[in-house]
């Protein structure tokens, strides 16, 4: 124990809340944010000169409005549906395009939103078409490994 350690006998339990995210399954919600960003990926080529570090993957991140909020202030947690759609990039990691095929995940999502890809001029135009549309939430369960133990978690994405 460090010198600054608190008196643990003075620390009381706090009643915590929980959220059943499965209640949002198949609920319609508005798409609030559509952004392009880079995320870590184990499937991209290695960074030049590196033996372990991979290039980041360009993605289109689509997220809903806030579906539920827990807490307040800096402890506030917001729950929303979100989805990452991979974008095309060259071997150097430069963003080069987006999938417009009907069978791509982005194509199926856009079809569900009634967006015709033939009417989309570029990535910025696609983002504007998606933002503000109504989409259906999909709640799904996945086990996560925390310190060697498996725990079930519920996540929210879009049904398409």
Please characterize this protein's 3D structure.
With 160 residues, the protein is mainly beta. It has one domain. The chain contains two helices and nine strands, in the order βββββββααββ. The radius of gyration is 20 Å and the shape is globular. It starts with 27 loop residues before the first strand and ends with a strand.
In a few lines, what is going on in this structure?
This protein is mainly beta. The protein has 2 helices and 9 strands. The model has no long low-confidence stretch (mean pLDDT 90).
Coarse shape: globular
Quaternary organisation of the protein chains: single chain
Give average pLDDT, whole number.
90
Number of strands: 9
- Structural class by SSE content: mainly beta
Strand order of the largest sheet: 5-2-1-8-9
Number of domains: 1
Question: Runs with pLDDT <50, length 5+?
Answer: none
Please provide the ordered H/E string of secondary-structure elements. EEEEEEEHHEE
Radius of gyration equals: 20 Å
Alpha-carbon distance between the two ends: 52 Å
């Amino acid at each position: 124990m460090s010198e600054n350690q608190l008196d643990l006998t003075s620390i009381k339990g706090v009643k915590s809340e929980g959220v059943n995210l499965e209640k949002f399954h198949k609920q319609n919600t508005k798409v609030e944010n559509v952004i392009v960003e880079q995320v870590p990926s184990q499937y991209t080529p290695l960074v030049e000169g590196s033996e372990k570090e991979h290039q980041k993957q360009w993605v289109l991140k689509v997220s809903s409005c806030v579906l539920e909020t827990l807490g307040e202030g800096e402890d506030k947690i917001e729950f929303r549906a979100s989805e990452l759609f991979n974008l095309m990039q060259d071997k150097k990691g430069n963003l080069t395009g987006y999938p417009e095929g009907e069978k791509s995940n982005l194509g199926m999502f856009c079809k569900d939103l009634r967006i015709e890809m033939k009417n989309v001029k570029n990535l910025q135009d696609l983002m504007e078409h998606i933002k503000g549309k109504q989409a259906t939430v999909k709640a799904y369960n996945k086990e996560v490994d925390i310190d060697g133990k498996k725990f079930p978690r519920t996540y929210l994405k879009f049904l398409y």
